[in-house]
Amino acid sequence: MKTFQEVKTLNRPRLVIEYDTDSQSPRENDNIGFFLTDERNYNSPDGKDNRLYDLMNETADEAENTADHIERIKGAAKEEGMKIVAIYPVYRYEHGGVAYRRGSAKGFDYSNCGFYIITDETLKNTIGKNDKKLIENGIDAELKEYTQWANGEVYRFTLYDESGEEIDGCGGFYDIEDIRGELPEEWKDENLDEYLNYKED
User: Rg (Cα) of the chain, in Å, rounded?
Assistant: First the structure.
């Protein structure tokens, strides 16, 4: 581990990696569609100031099952002039942390919590074409990223020079290895996990 010597203290790492507690939600980025949930203890990832959120809830009581609910949302949206390309159910697994996945699931720690809804406008502004595989891969990647954010698994780094002065730093990394690309060449072979959550004695 690369360190600098500071008078009156022990050796400290020149690179400190921490969990980024101030990172913005990945739902603030351009996404393929709307991730909408109706959960008592959680906010809907894409908010509640959304007509699709209202339609999801307005059609819930009459729906006989998930497939019927999807068709009712599509029908209600069409009546209001919105073109829905696809709707996918989303479930939440909660046991210690929380995980969101595409699909439906049953079990003690599972909850079918909402939908991922893609409109022609959101699709046009992102991947640009109605390709099922691209859409599903994109949704899965977005749900994985949101899961990491919800669990606080986002990273930031601070880099110091040999005398202990801060020279660089940045946050919002969803993979600790992505930090490597922001570091000087001398860090290319370092095990970055060794620098995570260093605490001074």
Answer: 22
